[in-house]
Amino acid sequence: MLDKIPELIKKTFPIPGKYRSRLPSDIARLSKLLTNNRGERALSYLSKPDLLSAYLYYFLPWNLYRLCLLIPALNISLAENDIITDLGCGPLTFTCALWISCPDLRNIPLVFNCVDRSSPALEAGKKIFTALCKNSDTWKINIIKEDIDLRKIKTSVTRKRKPASLVCAVNLFNEIYEKLPHNNIEELRRTAEKTAKLLHGEASQEGKILTVEPGVPQSGRFISLLRDELIKLNRQPFSPCTHSADCPFLEGAFKLTRGRGWIDTKKRWCHFAFESFDAPKELTAISKAAKLPKERLVLSYLFSGGSRAAEKNPQKINNSAKEKQDIRVISDAFTLPENRFGRYGCCEKGLVLVTGDKNRISEIPSLSLTAAYPFENEKRDSKSGALLASIKDKT
After folding, report:
1. Which one of 14, 113, 174, 176 is most buried, by most CB atoms within 10 A?
2. 2-312 and 325-394 in the same fold
3. 123-179, pLDDT tens digit by residue?
4. Domain residue spans of the chain
5. Residues 89, 116: contact at Cβ < 8 Å?
6. Positive or negative, the Cα torsion across 226, 232, 234, 238?
7. CA distance to 84, 163, 250, 290, 353, per residue, from 218 (Å)
8. What is d(CA 260, CA 92) in angstroms, rounded to the nearest whole number?
9. What are phi and psi of 255, to 5 degrees?
């Protein structure tokens, strides 16, 4: 289905011939507005036809590809007539990705509240989804024009909609915190606190919350802070975290042994990278034409459980020296001395450097959940301060 997305968009939103040659340059211009020139970007940028076309032909397919890599790794279980609220949905990106990657949900009646400030993006998304699902009426789509304004959130959130079984926000909050200086951690924390209250207020007691952001350092820090704030609201992290202990990617989360002070987390953040070698050929072609080829897709995300479920099943910390530890792999493979290879990972004991021979380490991709046995004498890597562990088997 992903292979057919570029052609589906072309049929649903054809670009007249005289404007088609401008598409690569429009894509490049929008890319700059979303990154280096974000200060010049208007809030209603997707209301402009040329920028909306650029988004639909380039950014939407890549975001779908990225989400379709992530969603199957999550336990998104939904029942008949459950409500899904998608904040800042754009052209219904998450809804389309869920249809593509979860075929078992296609015959379950679900209600989607798709919320965004841009009416053209909402209308375009509904048209694309209708073409994608071939006019199936199993899922009810409510498009809602509404701005998400964190400045109005103080101590609580006034609920405008019925509580949702799943609340998601994809590439939404970076438009807010990206304007902050990267050394202003306190303001980033306040943004995370308001975000947690917003998401918590939209979800039912047992509802789940999914936040996906770009895989850059500032996003990783935001996700770590958001995790802390949701835990305060009794919404425990389900994924990628294997635990609810302190996040090792927050500065000052834990100390090095032998009196070496705090671990420097500025160069490390929670993110996941995937190769894009099997992306649709038409998408890779237009990416090259825009001089924006994508060889890797990177994201940071947090999937949290409902507050009532968290009360019944709190995550236990495993401090046993005999039991193996679940480790979430969070980096690419890199070389180490003595012809060894390693990847960074995270577990309840903190940041981990898992090591092994090249073949063993290379076969464990980013986002994998693997297992390592006790950290012998809790030795640490001299460069990163991470605990050293050897992979024994894969789960």
Report:
1. 113
2. no
3. 999 999 999 999 899 999 999 999 887 766 655 555 678 999 999 999 999 878 877
4. 2-312, 325-394
5. yes
6. positive
7. 27, 30, 11, 26, 22
8. 48
9. -105, 155
The whole-angstrom separation of Cα 202 and Cα 167 is 7
Distance CA 226, CA 248 (A): 14
Residues in the chain: 395
Handedness of CA 96, 100, 102, 107 (dihedral sign): positive
Flag the least confident range among 47-51, 98-102, 317-321, 356-360. Answer: 317-321
pLDDT in tens, 58-96: 999 999 999 999 999 998 999 999 999 999 999 999 999
CATH number given to 2-312: 3.40.50.150
Tokens, residue 21: 């040659």
Among the four given CATH numbers 3.10.450, 1.10.3290, 2.40.50, 2.30.30, the one describing domain 325-394: 2.40.50
Strands 164-170 and 139-145: unpaired
Pick left, alpha or beta for residue 261 (phi over 0 → left; psi -120 to 50 → alpha; otherwise beta): left
Q: By C-alpha distance, which of 19, 7, 131, 11 is closest to 61?
A: 7
- In angstroms, the CA 299 to CA 307 distance is 25
Question: Pairing relation of β-strands 82-87 and 110-116?
Answer: parallel
Contact between residue 248 and residue 384 where contact means Cβ atoms under 8 Å apart: no
Residue 353 token pair: 């450097």
Scanning the structure block, which residue is given the tokens 């199993």? 138
For residues 276 and 303, what is the distance between their CA atoms, to the nearest angstrom?
23
Quick one: three-class SS letters along the chain? CHHHHHHHHHHHCCCCHHHHCCHHHHHHHHHHHHCCCHHHCCCCHHHCHHHHHHHHHHHHHHHHHHHHHHHHHCCCCCCCCEEEEEECCCCCHHHHHHHHHCHHHCCCCEEEEEEECCHHHHHHHHHHHHHHCCCCCCEEEEEEECCCCHHHCCCCCCCCCCCEEEEEEECCCHHHHCCCCCCCHHHHHHHHHHHHHHHHHHEEEEEEEEEEEECCHHHHHHHHHHHHHHHHCCCCEEECCCCCCCCCCCCCCCECCCCCCECCCCCCCCCEEEECCCCCHHHHHHHHHCCCCCCEEEEEEEEECCHHHHHHCCCCCCCCCCCCEEEEECCCCEEECCCEEEEEEEECCEEEEEEECHHHHHCCCCCCEEEECCCHHHCECCCCCCEEEEEEEEC
